[in-house]
């Protein structure tokens, strides 16, 4: 019996990770949950937040995810995320400018629908900023 878990992280564009890890902490809609090998099966939707991958030896990687779901089985975890970016890859200056632009889009929205979409985009960028 292995003490490691098969972890796959997939975005709409490509498979981002596929490896054996010790544990993954996932930002579920009902709260964060940790997954180890032999976990009970279940499916959860994701909320915007940081997924923490713990590799053998304790090294951690932090990945911001937004949207999607996690599929847990006794032998593995598959996370299908609408958007995923390694926290270490976030360009803070670019993100600050994107937040400023998105704030202007909210203020300049000409309809309630446009304002709601712009606000959702701004909220996602702020979640990413909090993760960085």
Please tag this protein with its features.
single chain; 132 residues; alpha+beta; ATP Synthase, domain 1; 8-stranded mixed β-sheet; 2 helices; 28% helix; 44% strand
Query: In angstroms, what separates the terminal alpha carbons?
Result: 37 Å
Looking at CATH, the homologous superfamily of the largest domain is F0F1 ATP synthase delta/epsilon subunit, N-terminal
Can you tell me the overall shape? Answer: elongated
Strand content: 35-45%
Number of helical stretches of at least 4 residues = 2
Low-confidence residue ranges: none
What would you call the structural class? alpha+beta
Radius of gyration: 17 Å
User: How many domain units?
Assistant: 2
Q: Give the overall pLDDT as a whole number.
A: 90
The helix content is 25-40%
Any guess at the CATH architecture of the largest domain? Sandwich
Largest sheet: 8 strands, mixed
- Could you give the count of β-strands? 8
The H-and-E topology, N to C, reads as EEEEEEEEHH
Q: What CATH first level of the largest domain would be assigned?
A: Mainly Beta
CATH topology term of the largest domain? ATP Synthase, domain 1
